[in-house]
Amino acid sequence: MALPFDVDSRARDGRALTILAKTIYRELRAEGYSAGEVMALASELLGLVAVEVKDRRAPNSETAPAARVEASLQAQP
Questions:
Q1: Bigger pLDDT: 19 or 75?
Q2: What is the distance between the alpha carbons of residues 1 and 33, in angstroms, rounded to a whole number?
Q3: Strand boundaries in the chain, DSSP class E
Q4: Can you tell me the distance from the alpha carbon of 64 to that of 47, in angstroms, rounded to the nearest whole number?
Q5: In whole angstroms, what is the distance from residue 71 CA to residue 40 CA?
Q6: Alpha-carbon distance 38 to 11, whole Å?
Q7: CA atoms within 13 A on the CB side of 63
Q8: Helices and strands per DSSP (H, E), number in the chain
Q9: What is the rounded distance in angstroms from the CA atom of residue 9 to the CA atom of residue 15?
Q10: Of 27, 65, 66, 76, which shows the fewest CB atoms inside 10 Å?
């Protein structure tokens, strides 16, 4: 599954994220991932976004948001 990461965000159709989410879901299910595993993935993604949003709201954070997300990713087994 190839994802179009190089597409300009201003050029995206308003339905693009919905279509992308459905496509990812269908691909994961077709590859044999259970509904629970897909939910676990969604939870991990939300957690990473939450860390980034939290860091953006903290005016004097010591670590940049991207660095914290990267650190979180590296800490995963």
A1: 19
A2: 15
A3: none
A4: 16
A5: 19
A6: 29
A7: 12
A8: 3, 0
A9: 12
A10: 76
pTM over 0.85: no
Q: What would the pLDDT profile of 16-74 be if each residue is shown by its tens digit?
A: 989 999 999 999 999 999 999 999 999 999 999 999 988 888 776 555 566 666 776 77
* Beta carbons within 10 angstroms of residue 16's beta carbon: 13
What's the token pair of residue 23? 């496509």
A 10 A CB-CB count for 42 gives 13
- pLDDT given at position 75: 73
Residue 41: partners with Cβ closer than 8 Å, 6 or more residues away: 28, 33
Q: How many CB atoms lie within 10 A of CB 48?
A: 15
Report residue 73 as tokens. Answer: 């990713």
- For 2, list phi and psi in degrees, rounded to 5: -100, 130
Unique residue bearing structure tokens 């914290």:
68
